[in-house]
Amino acid sequence: MVEMSKLVFDQHFRDLDCRYLLHPWGAGCLSSSLVLYRDALIGSAQFYSIVYLIQIIIRGKKMKRKDQWVEMAEYYVRSTLLGQLVTASAANISCLLRKLMGNKFNYYTYLLVPFTLNGLFIYLEPPSRRGLVINLFVNLYIEYWLRSFEKAGYLTVTKTQQTLLFMIGSSLLFYLMRLEGEKKQRTPLIWLFTPEKVRRKSDSNENPCPHNGSCQKFIAKGTATYFGVGLAFSLARVILPKLRSPISAIASIQRKHFKLALFFGSYIGIYRAVICYLCRRKGFDSATYALPAGYLAGLSFLFSPSLGIAIGSVTAAMKLYSTILYEKKIIPTSIPLPELLYCICQGTLMSTRILHPDVCPGYMFNLMRTVSYGRSEWIAKNVKDVLEKTSLQS
Q: What cellular component GO annotations does this protein have (predicted)?
């Protein structure tokens, strides 16, 4: 595929009708928009059903309470609306901007500006979940720039470097999470595991470790539980799309689908083993033990390396540290900096999926394909076909 740039876009796409680049399934802007809103609702509902299923599994015993199910249902509806409105309204905004500009497309107003503007739909998410979504998109935004620099030849991100990044990020993240352990309201994070609170020295329990019972059972339970969570997540992605043919779905399970489970299980197992060892050796618990424990647990990353997860560990630690800065009034609370950052990240990432797929994070392909019910793939194919066809003619 020819490298996309502003100059190339202006040469090949500026004068095209919007049906080719925004709604190839219908000629009319309004009629095709109604189809997109319908499909975006279906796609978003499917996408978030998997997301919330995993969260229900992770919450475990908490889901025995009725209020937890009510809250989860409300959050699911709000997330689904977010996915629908972001996906479908972008085409509306882009069509409008094209008409205002004399029926001409522009590199920036095609997708970047529409998806940046409708990023404000993030306010549909409750504050407790909003930060999680923002953090995810910041991770993807950093991954996009790393991929871009790597493609340009400015740097090379090896598996060893990713592992080291994850080890450092895990070390800092677990340490900051344990420091937050005494707070009534902890900073919401999307992460694999929430470490136990530091056991105070004044605790009447003779066990210095942050758990009750034997260390062996504590370590084994964590390892088995998170191995199961990782396996459930992997199998859900394999089996759910093929529910109509369960036999072929089960037959498609391969050895590689156990990598995530091995990663999750060993990650928690190593962390807990190191924490218990240090507590037993020193005779008391401390938040600083999370530094070596998180660092060594990061070696489990080798089972299932992912640049996005490596970046996520660091950005999650940065988010916790930013909470400290907010509390100390170093960062002003009067300006919605996280939401504005989200808008920039969303606009960049979603336009990149169509115009620069070679450097776009893999998560964005699955996200846009699912929430648009396949419509984004149609648009991406049209863009690619037009670019290649006109390039051959010139």
A: endomembrane system
